[in-house]
Amino acid sequence: MKMKLKSKLVCLFFLLIFIGLAPAKAQTYEISLLTCSPGDELYSSFGHSAIRVRQLTPGGQDLVFNYGTFDFRAPNFYGKFVMGQLDDYYLSVTTYAEFIREYDYFQRDVREQVLDLRGEQQSFLVQHLTVESDPSRRFYSYEFFFNNCATKIRDAFETALGDDLVWGDSVGAEEKTFRNLIDEYVYPLPWADFGIDLALGSVIDRDATEREKQFLPDYMEAAFAKATLVGDGPSRPLVKESRVILEYPKAEFSMGALNPYSVMWGVAILFIAVTFFGHKKKRLLLGFDIGLFSILGLLGILLTFLWFFTDHAATKWNWNILWAFPGHLALVWGLLKSRHQPWVRKYLLFALIMADAAVVFWILGWQSFHPSLIPILLVIILRTNYLYYNIGSRTQKIA
Q1: Neighbours of 144 (CB within 10 A)
Q2: 292 and 216: one domain?
Q3: 4-35 pLDDT, tens per residue?
Q4: In a 3-state reduction of DSSP, which class is residue 122?
Q5: 250-284 b/e with 16+ CB inside 10 Å = b?
Q6: Burial label, 164 (beta-carbon count in 10 A; 0-12, 13-18, 19+)
Q7: Which residue range(s) make up the domain with 8?
Q8: Domain end marker among 246, 269, 294
Q9: pTM of the full predicted structure?
């Protein structure tokens, strides 16, 4: 009972804030879309969007509605994130001053688009946001591509404006896949870029429509700039004024020495040297292969889990599993034996074919792999070839 009473009081509080919601001819609000530049952490690397609602009456409230709020400390937050069942994102309400203070502290740009809404359109939108921010309704199931802080804003405006809102013409727009769009933002975070390309499957290698691109705040901002309002008088642009609230010098990007490209090519050079040395000394030096295929097998278990045992739509049909395959752990077990069974050579041929298939899938465009994987695929092809032809005739030696 106490929780219900508290919920009603909070809802009443917001309704009192917006007591002037009754349709009026005069505009009582200024409503804006706020677009924030990417931050340094992965969760903030794609930027952010929020809605500013400013009452124009003396002493009026200046609030920001933020669909991108979450709490790492929520029960089982990380477990639900891994399983693709994250329902801890919610619509929060804060003051404009507090919102700007946070982005000023982290030195992230903030741009504002003031929207040309009529009084009744403003009122309907504010009522909708007020109801959505009620504690009993504010939580939603987060999905990175189709239900995030930007798409929820788009949906709110479509609910409030209906057919009066017309998105701009997409003729001539550049075609980009979902993976291309992600790469634009995670390139400054090379290991995050590598992890995303490893975990997400071929389902994100299709072209995104102009509407689907709006999961990214920058593209949402561009869509608002091209949108028009019709049906309530002469058609007019949705955005009547653009402002820069905060702007900071852009930091120069430096990938650093320890990045996926340098590490993977370092591994490739190591295995080329091991193979050359082993060939000269007539030794297999299997310790290197045991380490390599152990890592690949464990990665394969992770990819299998993400594909088949979670609710993440974007991790399905992930053909990284052709080279990072759980069965490689069986190969490790076979290589550890003092006497190699006939199946070991057959599995080596299978692993070679799988790695070759990954290259073919990449060339045909069925899935785009991270470019740093080129040396790893070459290593797999090299070592499976070498072991297949020599495992029965060379001395086994654990490196």
Answers
A1: 18
A2: no
A3: 445 545 454 554 454 444 443 446 899 999 99
A4: helix
A5: eeeeeeeeeebeebbeebbeebeebbeebeeeebb
A6: middle
A7: 2-18+27-173+210-246
A8: 246
A9: 0.85
